[in-house]
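Researcher: Let's do a round of design. I'm pasting the structure tokens now; please hold your answer until I've finished.
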């Protein structure tokens, strides 16, 4: 082969014995944007690392995690349907994970322990703050009582924000409120509002957060039972759905001149802790990574 032939060859990405490895465990996992985001940061910071999607069937989670740990991975993200299994497998639970009842970030510590973190709640708050909105005091109306709602409720309460929970299935809203009240620090700052009676609650709220899958591309049909005409002009409207970024809720809120926060930034901010733990660098969240993900999501209903 001539030198010219050699130069024409593609340059393989170097993965060697010292390459730091992490990934995201889910089923399915092909849709996850985490590999794009983490590999962008790895390239941006010139870190010898790789982050891969790890499709793991329900029931195979524990064996997969032990195998990845034995194979020298630094840790993984965990997504649907494994977040509760991740909560059970860890040796050390961070407070965020204890309060959320689930784990979305595993770190394989040098002493052999598996550490579990839940970064959704703090990712949500960091994203709102990145929009120049202080998250402290006041009252938030939280729509939904699923996994994301629990993480966000815990983080809001930690910052002194009173939380009113409303969910289509009222029993789940009460369960979530009880779980939050069980934490002495949260105290009486949580209550539940009826799903079909939000008109009396909304005027007293500073923030509205949709954590349901209503509005999501391919999600359930229908609208949320909120009338933004009843909101104060200071209401901040947040939607954690990020496909599409501009949900019907956010479009209506923007048309009324309300401040809006979409879900993409939460996705980015929640990834930060894992990246720092596995790859040793705290990624700066700039417009580049947001533009990269935004362009990728546009093909999917955004
Ligand atoms: P989950 O645990 O399955 O909870 C789903 C929630 O949506 C429940 O409260 C459920 O109410 C409600 N819901 C579903 N269909 C509904 C309908 N037709 N009408 C009213 N409420 C309905 O899901 P999750 O993990 O919390 O995720 C929820 C959403 O947040 C998803 O769209 C997900 O993509 C998004 N998310 C975004 C981020 C981010 O980083 N931006 C992170 C996590 C999640 P019931 O209890 O009545 O069923």
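Researcher: That's everything. Go ahead.
Model: Designed sequence:
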């Amino acid at each position: 082969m001539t030198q010219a032939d050699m130069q024409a060859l593609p340059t393989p990405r170097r993965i060697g014995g010292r390459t730091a490895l992490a990934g995201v465990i889910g089923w399915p996992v092909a849709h996850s944007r985490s590999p794009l985001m983490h590999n962008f940061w790895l390239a941006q910071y010139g870190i010898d690392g790789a982050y891969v999607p790890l499709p793991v069937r329900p029931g195979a989670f524990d064996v997969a995690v032990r195998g990845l740990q034995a194979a020298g991975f630094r840790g993984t993200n965990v997504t649907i349907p494994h977040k509760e299994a991740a909560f059970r497998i860890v040796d050390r639970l961070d407070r965020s994970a204890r309060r959320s009842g689930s784990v979305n970030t595993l770190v394989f510590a040098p002493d052999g322990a598996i550490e579990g973190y839940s970064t959704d709640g703090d990712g949500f708050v960091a994203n709102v703050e990145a929009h120049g909105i202080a998250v402290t005091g006041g009252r938030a109306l939280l729509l939904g009582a699923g996994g994301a709602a629990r993480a966000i409720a815990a983080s809001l309460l930690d910052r002194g924000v009173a939380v009113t929970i409303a969910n289509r299935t009222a029993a789940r809203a009460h369960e979530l409120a009880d779980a939050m009240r069980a934490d002495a620090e949260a105290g009486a700052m949580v209550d539940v509002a009826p799903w079909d009676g939000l008109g009396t609650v909304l005027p007293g709220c500073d923030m509205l957060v949709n954590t349901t899958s209503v509005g999501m591309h391919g999600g359930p049909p229908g609208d949320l039972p909120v009338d933004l005409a009843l909101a104060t002009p200071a209401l901040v409207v947040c939607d954690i759905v990020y496909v599409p970024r501009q949900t019907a809720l956010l479009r209506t809120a923007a048309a009324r001149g309300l401040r809006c926060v979409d879900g993409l930034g939460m996705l980015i901010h929640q990834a930060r802790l894992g990246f720092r733990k596995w790859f040793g660098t705290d990624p700066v969240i700039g417009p580049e990574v947001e533009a990269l993900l935004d362009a990728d999501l546009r093909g999917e209903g955004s």
